Amino acid sequence: MTALLAAEGVGIGFGRLTAVADASLTLGAGETLGLVGESGSGKSSLAKALIGLVPLRAGRVLIEGRDIAGLDRAGRLGLRRRAQIVLQDAAASLSPRFTVARLIAEPLRIHGMAQARMAPLVERLGLAALLARYPHELSGGQAKRVALARALVLEPKLLVADEPTAGLDISVQGEMLNLLARLRERLGLGLLLVSHDLAVIRRVSDRIAVLYLGRIVETGPTRAVFRQPAHPYSAGLIASTPVIDPERRQRRRALDGELPSPFAPPPGCAFHPRCPQARELCRRVTPTPAVVGEDRAASCHFPLTEA
User: 275 pLDDT band (50/70/90 cuts)?
Assistant: First the structure.
């Protein structure tokens, strides 16, 4: 079966900065893939590239089996109907000159679709009372719901949500995650969820891709990766996640040190300066993805094993 989204060896750069290198991942219809990593790891750059908002230096991206780089103007317009993104700063993505009603209706106007299509979505997202307001009159959570409505009004197959809970109160975060889960189920969305918050990813994603300094270092089913991470960076991220239960002990070592500069990445495995089990091979040779279990891969010379 053709994947809804497939990235193959994607490379992204800005001048002499390499933001993402040799990234490959897949996403199926109705599936949620969590893309995680520290700030500065390249998550947002990769997310934007996957729907054609950032040009590629290498590799290719296929949506429903079609290479998005080869699309003509009509093809790109069709892509916008099938693939949408909700940006991290939702409020900044909304035109201050438009009311909420016009913001949601604008994609329909561009694509020549009936304005009546927005009514059920407005009701579902609880936006009816906000239609006459302008973006500066919205709270953070309201702005994110408006941006979500604008993305979903075209009924896309793929939705990329970049840090959808960032900056929201805990209760509002829960509402947003529940909303995304319900919409995915009702609409059959393929959802790429980008976040630095592992608690969010653990709660809603089916599979996970871990990004470090522009490289995907581990992929696999979310439950399996959290239970037994194969890459030391994944293990460190999980161990660094706050635990509510004070009686629960962490079995793994939390991350030490800072993310290196992407302008001067370390040789070999980029994680080796922070890795508690780095060896000479790690300092010299960049690891490639290797199978470490069912539907799992890790780019590590010495994947973790536990008794």
Answer: very high
> Distance of CA 253 to CAs 8, 282, 302, 303, Å?
32, 19, 16, 15
Q: Do 194 and 80 belong to one domain?
A: yes
Confidence band, pLDDT 50/70/90 cuts, at residue 70: confident
CB 220 within 8 A of CB 34: no
Residue with more model confidence, 249 or 66: 66
Residue 65 half-sphere exposure, CB side, CA atoms within 13 Å?
A: 2
Strand 207-212 to 215-221 pairing? antiparallel
Confidence bin at 54 (pLDDT 50/70/90): very high
Contact 35, 47 (CB under 8 A): yes
CA 258, 305, 251, 202: dihedral to nearest 10 degrees?
A: 70
Q: What angle do CA 102, 104, 110 make, to 5 degrees?
A: 80
Q: Are both 161 and 42 inside the same structural domain?
A: yes
Query: Could you read off the pLDDT of 2-22 as tens digits, one per residue?
Result: 799 999 999 999 999 999 999
What CA–CA distance (Å, rounded) separates 66 from 199? 33
Regarding pTM above 0.85, the answer is yes
- Both 196 and 131 in one domain: the answer is yes
Task: State yes or no: pLDDT of 151 exceeds 80.
Answer: yes
Sequence-distant (≥ 6) Cβ neighbours of residue 263 within 8 angstroms = 16, 17
What DSSP state is assigned to residue 130?
G
From the centroid of its chain, how far is CA 259? 19
Give the residue numbers spanning the domain of 249: 223-307
